[in-house]
Specification:
Elements: E1 4-6, E2 11-13, E3 21-27, E4 30-34, E5 37-41, E6 46-47, E7 60-63, E8 67-73, H1 79-85, H2 87-136, H3 162-174, H4 183-215, H5 226-237, H6 244-259, H7 266-281, H8 287-299, H9 302-310, H10 314-328, H11 338-362, H12 370-378, H13 383-386, H14 388-397, E9 409-411, H15 412-420, H16 435-444, H17 450-457, H18 460-469, H19 471-480, H20 499-502, H21 506-519, E10 525-532, E11 537-545, E12 549-557, E13 560-564, E14 576-583, H22 587-607, H23 619-628, H24 638-650, H25 655-668, H26 679-688, H27 693-699, H28 703-732, H29 739-748
């Protein structure tokens, strides 16, 4: 079947449009909108499969990016026939159907919770408002129709077993090959599921309408709402009144509630909030006090907001709250005594429990509260512990963080989300086991069954949990820099520089890598084999550049780590490097170090067991041989040998650490014409990490580089001559030069 291309933002299908075909997404992604919810379809999903029984669409579909669609004419009557023609297509139809049902049902469950939550919130807020008014001698205002608000009652709610039923049905069908299942059965399942999808969406529409009716009491165009009740009361009592802080905190919570309500007009909301903040600014006695009030308005009671959102048990919440408060009251938060250490360990354990619960919930929440986003991205928990000025800054930037996964720079939250959504595979754990290896180990130890292993292999949630429970806590501690005094929550005492100056951005990362690659141009190139027998090309080794993924850990730290050099076993996948989102040290220097780490580990990966075998020349084998036998090396002076001995002590006898230190000197000093290395080390690094052509030209007259550069130039000339011959042969036969070989020639000429 032909694939029809659509640009991003194209409206594929409108609700109520006749359904005459099913549409398989060949590439791209599509947003599906229905009354009360939204979900997303990816490559392999089938559009219309939830509605085919009804003959018309009740879901609208719009492309999120350039998308290719293959259409199959089909109605409910011909569905079985279509499925009998292609077992693979039948499998895709049913698999996508069950996936979409789960998406819609998950949204229904979230909406059900939200309806109950907002109902009780309104009642409690009004009671608190009346209490404030009574305390200050004001008459409480009554809102029109407020007395008509009642708890949600669904006469035809969904059965509680429905979700489990489809979960089990999905598993049972997945265990069968498509050829083993009667197409009539699959068609029947599809039709029956259509009825349940329609039921869920019908109930979701009721939930949406109920929330919309409730939300209008929070804010509406007439200003007959809770927001006006509270702001008016605040303006009356003034900022100096002790209750003003509580009122401001209540308004902050109210704004969080309104940010979650799709039925509240966003422009109206922004206008009202801006008006409130402007008036609030004039309540203070001076600029400094005004700024403090604004800070409180944004972030007051952060910890309770985060704990409530995470839905951890009351026991866990109480334990975390108590531990954080105790930590906040410590005069020395970096104390090394046993009690302080145990307290930090207790906070750390609870922090990750809360993070995990909140993260999983956020994956189904299109409107995560800003304070919770601060928790995810910065480890932020409490406004007082963070400092009001810092908390205010975090609040301001959290919705517009300068990262971009498309440009390979992620926040920790974006990274975990990418794994949860199947866009990235989880990292290896601290024992160097990847996810499949970990599952095998768990099965062998009896912790899981073979069935569990098979189920978990492609479960993106399990992959995310593996990442969160392994890489995340270890790397968060390492990037913080002070392992013994590590505590994952954002605290003002760790902020040593202005946060705005230390915030890592995609631009800063790219600028740093550009500086490194301007010196070590081949740093991130990998060798692959290119063949093209049709034009007489046998095997040619060419280099392709693969820049690393950078993950910004939620802490104020001083270090970075090159966690792994490739994904899985494929050598053309990006490395993974982690740094703190607020980096107190120079970012370029840290990335230089990580690049050195990457070069060492990548060479070991390529060389395998012979990484230190001098009979097979490589960066690691030559450097290993150099350090191992430096005492007998006649090319080294006594002074050079003493320096190596001292450096080895500092590096704790780690050959890798020695190389990284030399590599740092190579990039930061030698590349600028300021020698730091001895002759042997310089020769090895120049051979495998050569300077760019511009730097080589500049250093050509320097006797320190003359011998090594001459050897490099000879080898380079031989390689270029080889390609000149290859290109000439292609030209003689009128064959265009492959772009891969042309790119390799340009790479060698750098």
């Amino acid at each position: 079947m032909a694939v029809k291309e659509f640009p991003a933002g194209a409206q594929l299908i409108q609700s109520e449009q006749n359904l005459t075909a099913l549409h398989l997404i060949a590439k791209g992604s599509v947003r599906a909108d229905y009354p009360g919810g939204t979900y997303y379809l990816q490559k392999g999903d089938v559009i219309g499969v939830c509605e085919i029984f009804f003959g018309s669409h009740f879901i609208s579909y719009q492309t999120e990016e350039p998308t290719g669609i293959t259409s199959y004419p089909c109605t409910a009557a011909t569905l079985s026939t279509l499925m009998s023609k292609s077992a693979e297509l039948a499998n895709r139809i049913v698999t996508s159907l069950f996936k979409q049902f789960r998406e819609i049902h998950d949204q229904y469950e979230m909406d059900l919770f939200d309806c109950e939550n907002i109902y009780h919130y309104l009642l409690n807020s009004y009671e608190e408002y009346k209490t404030f008014c009574s305390k200050h001698g004001f008459s409480a205002r009554a809102l029109p129709d407020l007395e008509t608000v009642e708890p949600l009652v669904l006469e035809d709610d969904l059965e509680r077993w429905l979700d489990g039923y489809y979960e089990q049905l999905t598993t049972l069908i997945a265990e069968k090959s498509a050829q083993e299942i009667n197409p009539d059965f699959l068609a029947g399942i599809t039709i029956k599921t259509n009825l349940d999808v329609h039921r869920v969406i019908s109930v979701s529409r009721m939930l949406y309408d109920y929330k919309a009716d409730i939300a209008r009491f929070l804010m509406n165009e007439n200003k007959l709402d809770f927001f006006d009740l509270y702001t008016s009361l605040l303006y009356k009592i003034g900022q100096n009144d002790p209750d003003s802080t509580t009122l401001i905190a209540a308004l902050s919570t109210m704004m969080i509630q309104m940010e979650d309500q799709a039925s509240i007009d966003k422009e109206m909301y922004q206008s009202r909030v801006a008006e409130y903040r402007e008036k609030l600014a004039h309540l203070g006695d001076g600029p400094a006090e005004t700024a403090s009030v604004e800070d409180v308005a944004d972030v007051t009671d952060s910890m309770n907001t985060i704990l409530a959102y995470s839905e951890v048990s009351g026991e866990t919440a109480a334990a975390f709250r108590e531990a954080v408060n105790k930590f906040a009251n410590q005069s020395d938060k970096n104390a090394s005594d046993d009690a302080a250490r145990k307290l930090r360990l207790s906070i750390t354990k609870l922090f990750y429990q809360i993070y995990e619960k909140a993260f999983v919930k956020s994956m189904k929440d299109p409107s995560v509260p800003k304070v919770v986003k601060m928790f995810f991205n910065f480890g932020y928990v409490d406004e007082h512990l963070a400092g009001l000025e810092n908390a205010s800054y975090l609040y301001k930037i959290v919705d517009n963080l300068p990262t971009d996964p498309k440009r390979k720079v992620y926040t920790a939250y974006e990274w975990l989300t990418a794994i949860y959504k199947g866009k990235k595979e989880p990292s290896r754990n601290e024992f160097d086991s990847d996810f499949p290896t970990f599952l095998r180990e768990q099965k062998m130890s009896g912790n899981i069954t073979a069935a569990d292993e098979a189920r978990m292999q492609n479960d993106t949630k399990e992959k995310m949990l593996f990442e969160m429970r392994n890489m995340f806590p270890t790397v968060n501690k390492i990037t913080f820099g002070r392992v013994l005094s590590f505590c994952p929550i954002f605290s003002e005492h760790n902020v040593l520089k202005d946060l705005a100056d230390t915030l890592v951005s995609v631009e800063k990362v790219e600028e740093a890598f550009q500086k490194i690659r301007a010196i070590d141009f081949s740093a991130y190139y990998r060798d692959v084999i290119y063949t093209n027998p049709d034009i007489g090309i046998g095997k040619e080794s060419i280099g392709i550049e693969v820049l690393p993924d950078i993950v910004l850990m939620p802490n104020v730290g001083t270090r970075g780590i090159a966690w792994q050099e490739i994904e899985g076993r494929k050598r053309t996948t990006p490395a993974r490097m982690m740094v703190s989102i607020f980096q107190m040290e120079d970012l370029t220097n840290i990335l230089v170090r990580l690049t050195g780490d990457f070069r060492w580990e990548m060479c070991k990966r390529v060389q395998g067991a012979r990484w230190n075998d001098i009979s097979e020349a490589s960066l690691t084998s030559e450097y290993f041989d150099y350090i191992q036998f430096y005492r007998k090396n006649r090319e080294l002076s006594a002074d050079a040998k003493d320096k190596i001995k001292l450096s080895m002590q500092k590096a704790k006898n780690s050959y890798k650490e020695m190389f990284i230190r030399d590599y740092e000197a190579w990039i930061l000093y030698e590349g600028t014409g300021s020698p730091r290395l001895n002759k042997v080390s310089r020769g090895i690094i120049f051979t495998y990490c050569p300077f760019s052509k511009e730097i080589r030209t500049r250093l050509a007259a320097n006797p320190l580089y003359k011998e090594t550069m001459s050897r490099y130039d000879v080898k380079l000339s031989q390689k270029l001559h080889h390609y000149d011959n290859v290109f000439q042969k292609l030209k003689n036969t009128g064959t265009p030069i492959p772009k891969e070989l042309q790119a390799q020639y340009e790479y060698l000429s750098m």
